[in-house]
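Note to self: keep these together.
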Amino acid sequence: MNILIWALVIAMGCGIALRLRGQSAQRLAQRGQYLANVAPLFEAPLTAVAPTGFPRLSGRYRGALFDVQVVPDTLTYRKLPALWLLVTLVEPMATRATLDVMLRPRGVEPFSNFRDLPVQIATPPDFPEDCAIRSDAREGAAPADLVLTHLRRLDADAVKELVIAPKGLRLVWLAEEADRTRYLAFRDAEMGRKPLSPALLQPLLDALLALRDDLEKQP
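Structure:
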C-alpha cells in the first residue's frame, strides 16, 4: 500500500514538474518574440536575446540608428513589477553635457545611471512636481525650456526618464505592469505575453528625432 501511495506521489510530482517546465518554455518563447511586431519599422534590424529572455533590437529608422531594450523590474518596493522599454537614438548630439530627467524617482531604477551623475539640478518652473534632474556638469546641458516642451508632448503617466547626452538620446517608457490580482494573490510577475505594438513604439522614435532636430537648432 505504501509503495502504491509513493508511486502516486512521484507520478503527481513528475506531472507537475512537466507542466511547469512546459509553462516556463512557453513564457520564454513569448518573451523572445516581444519585439517581433516592431522589427519591420527598422531597416536591417538586428536582434539578440538578453539574459532576461527579452530581446534587444537595433536598426535604422528614418535613417537614424536606434537601440531598443526591454528591462523587467521586479525589485521596486511597494509597487507593481514593471516592464520598461528603453528607446535610444544612438548618434552624436548638439549638447556638451548629459542631462537626465527622472520622473517619480525611487532610487532603485535598474535601467538607469541617474544616481551616478554628480550634479543635482533644481527643478525648473512648470516641470512635473515628482521629478528629479541630474547632470555630469554644471554648464552645457540642454536648455530647460526645450526639455519641457518635449516632455509635455509625452504621456506623463508612462514616461519614466529622458536622457539628453552628447552620445545620444534615451526615453524610458512604462510598457507594462504586472497584473495586480495575480501578483498580489500568487506573486505572478510575468509580463510581455503579448508582443509590443508598433503603435506604441513609433511615436517614441519620432519624439526622439524631433528632440534631436530641435537640439541642432540651438545657438
